[in-house]
Design goal:
By secondary structure, the chain is mainly beta. The chain has one domain. 8% of the residues lie in helices and 25% in strands. The strands form two sheets. A three-stranded antiparallel sheet has the order 1-5-6. β5 and β6 form a beta hairpin. The longest helix is centred in the C-terminal third of the chain and has 7 residues. The mean pLDDT is 95. The structure holds zinc ion.
Amino acid sequence: MAKFRKRPEILEATLWSKKGDHPDVIMHPEPTLLGKSCLHCGKPGKKHGLLKTEPQDQIVCPGDFIVTNMLGKKYPLKARVLEICYEKIED
Ligand SMILES: [Zn+2]
């Protein structure tokens, strides 16, 4: 039986704060779904984005990072998680 060890995961990460920060994030078309303020970050719903991904779009809070993993999959990641679980290797 062959053995494998997982390679270090390298992510490309872009901070999203507002419209235009990442090409795949649009402003949330229905910010009222988030209520007056988001349950995750407490910021107003209208300040949120939507990352266009399959099979379903993902809500992006201002201050989240949009990451692309080695398989090309994109997803939002909280800044705190990125800070704790990853170290910066290149600017
Ligand atoms: Zn939020």
